[in-house]
Write a sequence for this structure.
C-alpha cells in the first residue's frame, strides 16, 4: 500500500536531520507499527505522507503511484495533537469534516450514524465538544478520521486519554478496519498495543531506521536463547550434575516444584532430553523478548 524509498528530510539548511535514507514497505490490509523514541523522526515521516511537509529527497508510492495531492482523499490521519472545534456540535463537525474529505452530505451522515452506533455515541449528536470528557473527545476524533473510509489510516498515539475499556473498544475497531481492507500505520509508545495489533514494525532512532520486519521475526532476532523450566519429582544428585554442565539462574523451590531459567547452548529438543532424567518436566518455554524489551535494546544499542 505504501512504499518509502530513501526518504530524507533536514531542517535549518541541512544542520538538523529528521530523516535519513528512510525506507519501509507497508503491506495492504495490515497494521504496521511505526516506533521510536521522541524526536526520532516518526512525526516528520507522517507529515511527509500527509503532504504537510515535502522530503528533501527520496520517494513515496501509494498503491504504486508516486505520492500526489489526490492521495489525500485516500488517507485518514489522527494526529497526537487533536484538532476539533470546541463549540460546534458533534453531528455538525462530522458532516463538516466528511464534506472536506469529498463526501456527500448524505454519505457523511450515513457513516457518522454507523460509527456513532458502533461506538455507543448515539446520544452525543447534539452535544458540543466542550461538554465532553477527554476520552469522549478522543472517540469523536477517531470517527472524524475514519469517516470517509480511507484506504490508508495513520494513527498517532490513538489510545491517549482512553480508559482500558474504551482503549479495547478502539483496538477492536482498528482490527475491524484491517479486516475490511484498510491499511493502518500505528505510531505509539504502548508496546503492549504493538504486540496485540501490529503485523510488522519499523523502529526509527536518530533519524535512521534501526530495524523492521514481521513482528514475530523481530522479537525472535532479539532472543537470548533462555528457557524457563519447571520440574517435579527432582532427583537432587542428577540436578547437581546437570547444573555443573548447564548453570541455572533464578532457581526456586515451591511445594516440590523446581523453577529456574536456563541458558541453552544446544537445541531445544537436546536440552529437553537432558532434563528428562533429572525430573518430570512440567513446563519448558523459550523466553521470547517483549516488544518493550526489543525497543529498549534496539534504541540503547544505537544511541
Amino acid at each position: 500500500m505504501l512504499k518509502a524509498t530513501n526518504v530524507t528530510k533536514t531542517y535549518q539548511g541541512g544542520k538538523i536531520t529528521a530523516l535519513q535514507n528512510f525506507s519501509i514497505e507497508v503491506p495492504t490490509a495490515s497494521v504496521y507499527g511505526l516506533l521510536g523514541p521522541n524526536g526520532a523522526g516518526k512525526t516528520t515521516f507522517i507529515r511527509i505522507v500527509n503532504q504537510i511537509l515535502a522530503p528533501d529527497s527520496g520517494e513515496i508510492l501509494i498503491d504504486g503511484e508516486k505520492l500526489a495531492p489526490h492521495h489525500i482523499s485516500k488517507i485518514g490521519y489522527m494526529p497526537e495533537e487533536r484538532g476539533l472545534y470546541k463549540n460546534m456540535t458533534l453531528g455538525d463537525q462530522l458532516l463538516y469534516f466528511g464534506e472536506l474529505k469529498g463526501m456527500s452530505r448524505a454519505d457523511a451522515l450515513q457513516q457518522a450514524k454507523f460509527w456513532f452506533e458502533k461506538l455507543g455515541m448515539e446520544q452525543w449528536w447534539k452535544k458540543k465538544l466542550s461538554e465532553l470528557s477527554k476520552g469522549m473527545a478522543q472517540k469523536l476524533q477517531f470517527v472524524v478520521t475514519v469517516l470517509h473510509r480511507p484506504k490508508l489510516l495513520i494513527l498517532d498515539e490513538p489510545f491517549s486519554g482512553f480508559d482500558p475499556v474504551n482503549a479495547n473498544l478502539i483496538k477492536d475497531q482498528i482490527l475491524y478496519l484491517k479486516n475490511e481492507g484498510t491499511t493502518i500505520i500505528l505510531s505509539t509508545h504502548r508496546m503492549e498495543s504493538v504486540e496485540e495489533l501490529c503485523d510488522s514494525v519499523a523502529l526509527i532512532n536518530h533519524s535512521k531506521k534501526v530495524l523492521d520486519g514481521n513482528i514475530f521475526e523481530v522479537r525472535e532476532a532479539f532472543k537470548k536463547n533462555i528457557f524457563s523450566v519447571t520440574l517435579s519429582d527432582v532427583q537432587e544428585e542428577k540436578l547437581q550434575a546437570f547444573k555443573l554442565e548447564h548453570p541455572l539462574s533464578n532457581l526456586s523451590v515451591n511445594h516440590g516444584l523446581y523453577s529456574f531459567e536456563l541458558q541453552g547452548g544446544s537445541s531445544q529438543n537436546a536440552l529437553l532430553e537432558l532434563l528428562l532424567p533429572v525430573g518430570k518436566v512440567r513446563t519448558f518455554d523459550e523466553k521470547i523478548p517483549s516488544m518493550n524489551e526489543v525497543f529498549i535494546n534496539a534504541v540503547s544499542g544505537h544511541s
In short: The mean pLDDT is 91.
